[in-house]
Amino acid sequence: MQISVKHLSSENALKPDIDPKKYNLIEQIGEGGYGIVYKAEQISTGQIVAIKMLKFKAYSDEKNRKLQVARFERETQLCAQINHPHIVKLLDKGYTASQEPYAVFEYISGTTLKDVIHQHNGLSAEKTGALMEQVLYALVHAHDNGILHRDLKPHNIMVTQTQTKPYIKILDFGMGAFTNDYKTKNYQDLTLTQDIIGTPAYSSPEQLRGEAPTIKSDLYAWGLIFLECLTGQPVMQGTNIAEIFQQQLNLVDIPIPIPLIDHPIAKVLRSVLDKDPDRRVKSASELFQEYNKVNFKTIVGKIKPTHHNSFPISDDATQVNQFAWRSTHSEKRQITVLCAKLNIAVSEETPSLDIETLETTQSSQLVLCKDIGIKYGAYIPPIVADTVVMYFGYPKLNDNDARRAGRTALELIGQTQTRNQELYEKYNLKIDLRIAINSGTALIKQNSAPEGLITNTAFNLLHSIQPWHIIVSQTTKELLDPYLEFEKLDMATSSSIGNTIDTYLLIGERSTEALSNLSPKSANQKMIGRGVEKQQILDIWNSNKDNKTILVQGQAGIGKSKLIYEIKKEVITSGYHVCECRCLSEHQNNALYPIFEILKKDIDSLHDGSQVSRLEKVFQKADCDLQKSVPILCSWLSIPLEGTYKITTITPSEQKEVLFETLKKYLLSIESAKKFMLVIEDLHWIDPTSLEFFSQLIEASDQKKYTIVATARPNFKPEWNAKQFALISLETLNTSYTKTLIADILKHEQISDEVTAYIMNRADGIPLFIESLTQMLLEQKDIYLQDNIYVLKQNLDDESIPITLKGLLNSRISKVGHAKETAQVAAAIGREFTHKMLLTASPYDDNTIQSHIHTLIEANLIYKQRRIENEIYVFRHALIRDAAYESMTSSLCREVHANIAETIKSNFPEIVNERPIELANHLAEAQKYETATQFGIQAVQKHIKNSANEEALKLYALIKKWIDGVENNSNKIESELILNDLVLPAQMAIGGYGCKEVIQINKRNEELINIAYLDENNISNKVLTEITHRIEWGLFLNYHFHSKRKKAAEIANSILSKLKKYPNRDIEVGVLPLIAQAFHADGELEKAEKLCLRVFDIYNAQTDVAIGFDYNMEPKSSSYFFLSSIYLFKGEVQKAEKYAVEGIKWSEEINHPVSITLAYLFYALYAYFLDDKELVRNIVEKHNLLHNDESGKNWVTTHLKMIGEWSYENINYAEEYVESTISNLQYYALSWYEPSLAQTYLIKNKFEKAIELLENSLKRSIEDNEFWTLSLVKRVLAESYYAKYKTLNKKIELLLKEAIKDAQKINATWFQLEALVFYSEIILKEKKKIPEKTKKELKTLSNKIIEITNTKLKMRVDKILRM
Known about the structure:
single chain, 6 domains, kinase, ATP-binding, Nucleotide_cyclase
């Protein structure tokens, strides 16, 4: 037998006078509570033994001496009854010559369990499991024989090595006792009022209270030892014995280490560590059965203790029960109290459950709540009924007590919501959880849980909220404002003393809190080498500049997010608000995704009422026009309308304008009192509509109220004005900063130059690479401490170390075991994912998922952002998500995406309705192309409906690839026809009616229709008929806008013929305006006029604005401005101006950007033909002032600018315009504009350029039969030749006579008169007489055009006629 205490020399005690014939004492080897132990040799056998002598010298009175002898006899009696391989054997007993008793035990050569734990700083789970199984096995035997140990501790357990396995023996039953069933009659004589009760750090509470020990006391000690083996530290620690007593006797449960909470071993430990012995497991045998079910191989990594206090006193000393340490001292301290009320709700659908099952269910949920509280350091007194009270700031004060309370509340909501679903599926039971938090100053009495007003107010708050809400007081909100988000409650709430207090609902964490110092690893990592950039950003934030936009650019892993995190943290702690969003690669075709995510969080935070009513509350706060904004937002967010709201009838472009204005007001309302910061991360993945919206915010004149901070990779090229933003480029870390970062990761230990050089050469100064590589080398022991310096492993296998950042991240993913599979599913969902989505898409159960998530968080691969609704997990970096995703095989990738797609269809209807492209992408990755195409087409429809044309075209290119994978040929053709037909309006809106993309789509549709008819594919006749019409219409547009006049006329007449035979008002009102323009181009002014007037007859303002979008030409406004042109040609000037102005009015009323710009264009052309440069300038400038934001980027704007350049006599843009139009083969109506450039050339004496330009224009017009401008081109060409030659030659005369005839042919009286006037003017310049025939013609035309008064042309006519 060996007692592990301080070794005592023989000088400290005289050797006892044991019969030397029996034993030879060798040395004293230890001293226990009641005896001294010697190593000795048994003479008869030569065996080494341990002899334990009873100590008398500490006791002077005879009574104590008799007591000790009686105890000695009892111990030997107990030991004689036990024969077990894991309990030390009693070999002999006797008395010395002086009648001092001794006992002889087998000598165990080995190390105490205490020393083993200390040497290894804790044991692995597997080793702990094996050793403590042997201890438990021994207790089963002892208890079955009616014997207790009463002083079980690591010092009384010897560990020896038998072959490859450790082997234990329990020592010192000197404290042993009989169980009640085995007590002898004289046992009561051994009990004293001040009894010896064991070692406080391992004694059960009932022992310390002086109560009789039971087998449950031994099991309690066993549980404490088990935890000490795992963590390397005693569970009960303190600076004095009083603190140990306090910890053991208070009613707070023993904290289970966080990694074990969800493991089966936790249940085993709770069954022995309950402070109430009545609730502990009944026997060692029962415990042994449960223990053997635990798989310790599933516990990996180091298990950290739940606290780290100083512990100077010896924890092995057996103590006498004293209570002299109690004190009446008290102090005032700020604490935060969290009250959680948890009920189990039974419905009519709930099966008949017995009361025990219901109570057990509720109890287990309350235990879960307690575990979560303990995890965040709460002090938890006994549960009162259905309410758990948690104290933060007691017994120890911490500067983040309120933060831990807030985090606990969110974790409670998240965890119990998950359990709620499980209970409902299993029993139809539902959990009802309400949480209240209050902070304030409390009076703290030693050894007594806080009581009073702070706690009472928290209890009162519980009764004023709905289930699944977290209510906080004003004081708590002020403490948590920098870290959490709140919504003010509009109801009066009473404190514990009856006064009214302000209260708030806790909504969720700010992202800065999700990455805060309460999270593992990365947030604690110092920011190295970005101090200058940080100060630049803060200087701009603190300045009074008008344009406060900052773009932080840098490659992946360079530290953009870390810099932004530090900025946000500083801004928030300074008392300002940060509004933030992130663009995601999986949503770059999802219009307005980042801004809608901000909005939806606000809507979700308002639990009361329907989605529409919550939307109303948000927009009322922003002072928005609800009747305008709510229907539009409901349309975008796929929320059904209700109440008095009606589906909006305004155009998509006008909807977009209202939407942008609403969203801007909403953002500004988030923080109305002070300036705020808007953070937009990862702009390289932004969708086009969001970019347009944020660009407007950047350009806004009132930007002093907010600072925009955005991040992007270098491939993002902003189109903002350079004066509107500051660009901060993050470069790789230099040598000095790299060394500093490595030192920070390695806790500032000394580092050899070899280690530094190795990391620097591979990591290229990229912070994420440096961190990941250093951690990997450390984990693999490729770098290690040698003489307090980190050195590089000799003969390091370079091939085992990835050479790229991506390879390194792949390696990190591979090291998380089975959690890698969960990471892969999460990566397939996206950079962000919810627990619900992950659980339903994964093959694992919830417990396994939770375990995997914990592993991924511990591995610093993901983090959790807690919210009341929809907790979000986020990959810490996009590259980590990419690494997890790319680690899947092709077949696994398909399977995972198929599961996610099925999950979305079955469980997430809001995604199907709001973001069908998300479902489509998963289906496509699963190679289910046909279904993917269907949902992809839905997404395109949604984008076009919302005027998100660029997103629609991006999706079009993607879906075309999916269609190639559709196996059924009929379905393939039909899908492509539908998609092509659907996307044409978007393509026309961006590229123009005759752009090459529109041509390609129409040609492809023609091919597909022919194939469908020839192969008799099973395509719906209705689909074919509708698409055939649209194809025919598309071909018409193609020929019309590419000046293929004959072909355009053929198709136009074909369409009109079909309409006559099969009347269709909707089609008619849609096609007539552009067919009218085609007739105009062909010189058939009367036909054109008739068609436009027909539109006015059949137009219905309630429905036909929408029809216009299908044909990308609003019927009424286009009829107005086409008539303006027709009447000008005919010389009806006043009528022409009237219709031009009416066209502008109507297009502005319906707010259709393309129509608005077209209307202004035709008015500008009217002014150009009147040679009125001032009027042209006024028209162009008014358009740019009023409509540049909405319509300034459409294809018509270039034409308007071209005419504007004529009025300013500029040629640069005009030259680019002509060159670009010709190169795109889209030169329809170019001959309207080329004469204006030629006239500017003439002003600048560039005669040759004017001639060359117009000769080419004339050639194209003749080839394409574009009759409407022949007269104009020939007349200005004649002017150019005359400017060059200064004389009327035959060529000039011929051109002018042809110009007059060409105008006459198409009844273009205005152009006829212009040509005739110029011809007459140069005759006079030549000092010749104007022929009478010509004069007569001038008078006739002048009289015919009665509206010519007050025009330059009229003045020129009058001058000629006077001469």
